[in-house]
Amino acid sequence: ADTATITVTVTGENDAPVLEEQSLDADEDGEAVSLDLAALASDVDVTDTLTFALAAMPARGLVTLADGVIAFDPNGDFEDLDAGETDTVVAEVTVSDGTETITRTVSFTVTGQHDASGVVRIGSSEADFLSGTDGNDRLDSGAGDDDLSGGAGADGLIGRQGNDTLDGGDGDDNIAAGEGDDFVFGGGGDDAIGGGAGSDNIDAGEGNDTIGGGFGDDTIIAGAGDDLVAGGAGKDFIAAGSGDDVVSGSFGTDTLFGGAGNDDLGGGFGMDTLSAGLGDDSVGGGNGDDLINGGAGNDFLAGGGRNDRINGGVGDDTINGGNGSDELIGGSGSDLFVFNAPDPSQTDTIFDFEVGSDQILLIGVENVPGSGLEGRLEALEMTHTMYGVGADAVESVVLSYEGQEIVIVGVAAEDLTLEDISFL
């Protein structure tokens, strides 16, 4: 009998991310609750990077989303609940793999608690001054440019309309600034602060605070403590301060400073400037042409999807420019430059590669006919070039990484060896 061979060619297609609807429980006066959506989401296309964004906010309460972790704080908005009574509010989150986007809901069920002694003061439509006691107070400004001072205790301060000044004082406070260009002071304690609409100035003070800038060009000083900060929409300035902080610029052209501590900074959407500061930090530029400075410490710095400029600073840093034509500077220390997404239309440039100290890691390089590492090195097709103009031009080498060019400035091709380049 005759034998025939049938060849079947399977063409891959993008599959959408997968994430189930989620729910969380919280207490009226309890601490913020959080859920790692990034750990729960999946995508069968294992090379896809998932990004998360808030699509709709709940009717009340404070929600932040940074690096795939969604956090919810009742924020003093559920004080009307009796002990044991519940209310459920819903936020919507989008998950994108760069090609397809899905929307999922996260519901938050808040249970009422017995309220400790304190006062309830409600302002008028005029400019009011409302002060609390040493108990757990609720101050509601109403309309007008108001001044609210919570004092000691776990207070709930609501700014509503107007350019308000809200000072939580000592205690674990919940502060919602509302509409207007507000000044907010968290004071001592683990506070939950929402800027709302308007260009707000927020100084969270000491404690492990949860801060959301909301809409507008906000200035946020997180202060001491391990803080969770999301700038929201607008051109925000965020200084994380001391502590191991998680900071997301969210939407807009943002400026982020990590300060002391091992921080996690994410630029989000927009052309952001991110300075990690002291500590072993993790920085992701996100979408946009970002400027990233590692500062001191052994940092992980990733550019994201556009044309980024990354400077590792002091320390043994890991630098990954991501998609786009990136400019990379390792700084002092033994740095690792990682390339894992070749794009023939892009060119990355390394400006200060130190032979024998720094290293380049190339992921997915196929070796030319031959064998072993020598074949992979040959596949890079190293060529000599001069970088710069006229008398300022310096000898450099160009690597062909699956069609994408990597220019190493100030290094001759013959100086590079297998000790300087590794493959995965």
Automatic annotation (TrEMBL):
Which Gene3D superfamilies does this chain map to? Serralysin-like metalloprotease, C-terminal
Q: Which Pfam families match?
A: Cadherin_4, HemolysinCabind
Q: Which InterPro entries match?
A: Hemolysin-typ_Ca-bd_CS (IPR018511), Hemolysn_Ca-bd (IPR001343), RapA2_cadherin-like (IPR040853), RTX_toxin/Mannuronan_C5-epim (IPR050557), Serralysin-like_metalloprot_C (IPR011049), VCBS_dom (IPR010221)
Q: What is this protein called?
A: Hemolysin-type calcium-binding protein
Q: Where is this region: Disordered?
A: 130-181
NCBIfam families in alphabetical order:
VCBS_repeat
Q: Which residues cross the membrane?
A: none
Q: Where is the RapA2 cadherin-like domain?
A: 4-70
The GO terms describing molecular function are: calcium ion binding
What's any one GO cellular component for it? extracellular region
Give the species.
Roseivivax marinus
Q: Report keywords, A-Z.
A: Secreted
Tell me where in or outside the cell this protein is found: Secreted
